[in-house]
Amino acid sequence: MREIIAILRGIDPDEAVPVTEALVNAGITRIEVPLNSPSPFLSIRAMVDTFGDVAQIGAGTVLTPEDVRNVAETGARMVVSPNCDPEVIAATRTAGLDSYPGVLTPTECFAALKAGATALKVFPAFQMGIEGLKALRAVLPIETRLYMVGGVGPAAFREWVSAGASGFGIGSALYRPGDTPEDVATRAAEMVAAHDGAFE
After folding, report:
1. Strand (E) or helix (H) holding 59
2. Which residues does 167 contact at the CB level (< 8 Å), separation at least 6?
3. What is known about its subunit structure (predicted)?
4. In the chain, N or C terminus with fewer CB closer than 10 Å?
């Protein structure tokens, strides 16, 4: 499974399945729908029903344990948040889902790991920068998985990976509301090529 999480912020339920198909066909099989999108649970359920056997479908911008319960009911397997909330992490793990809380400081990283996070979403990654990531990597447990999100593009994938990134969350560089599946397929192919080159 490639270390790219596609973030479909603002997607409409009518678009969810064809856009997901474009991503999966390109080789991107971790996909989240932020909960501040239109009717997100309808989109997530449709995506799970159609692609749940070949892709890890999840929700983003998950802020409360109640949100986690609603996500779990769709059959999704991943919860992504912009912040580090131990209650949300605990609810996610109790529900049997993978937890990707948002962190930026060492304190938040260690709090998220203590609460049971599966991996960490460094957000916004541009604020930490390459040198910041190197410094963070020096103190975190070696097995910690770090996904860089926010201002990270394919041109710099290799540099981020060299600094210790495990993967990337990509939003508007892959999908913006109104994009066609063909638009997404083209960008996804470029993203996959950059990913594969960075992890060679």
Report:
1. strand 56-60
2. 2, 3, 4, 5, 145, 146, 147, 148
3. Homotrimer.
4. C
Ordered by where they begin, the domains of the chain are: 4-178 (3.20.20.70)
What is residue 148's predicted lDDT score, i.e. its pLDDT? 98
Structural contact between residues 57 and 47, judged by C-beta atoms closer than 8 angstroms: yes
What DSSP line would sit under 16-43, residue for residue?
HHHHHHHHHHHT--EEEEETTSSSHHHH
Assess contact for 166 and 145: CB atoms under 8 A.
Answer: yes
3, 15, 21, 32: the catalytic one is 32
Q: Chunked in runs of 10, what are the mean pLDDT values of the chain (200 residues)? A: 97 98 98 98 98 98 98 98 98 98 98 98 97 98 98 96 98 96 98 96
Q: In terms of C-beta density within 10 A (0-12 exposed, 13-18 middle, 19 or more buried), how is residue 57 classed?
A: buried
CA distance readout (Å), 63 to 92, 94, 102, 113: 11, 16, 11, 17
Q: What is the pTM of this model?
A: 0.97
CA 161 to chain centre: 16
Q: Are residues 34 and 40 in contact, defined by beta-carbon separation less than 8 angstroms?
A: yes
Q: Which of 87, 121, 131, 200 is catalytic?
A: 121
Q: How far apart are CA 148 and CA 70, in angstroms?
A: 26
For residue 124, say if its preceding peptide bond is cis, omega within 30 degrees of 0. yes
- Residue 142 burial (10 A CB sphere; 0-12, 13-18, 19+): exposed
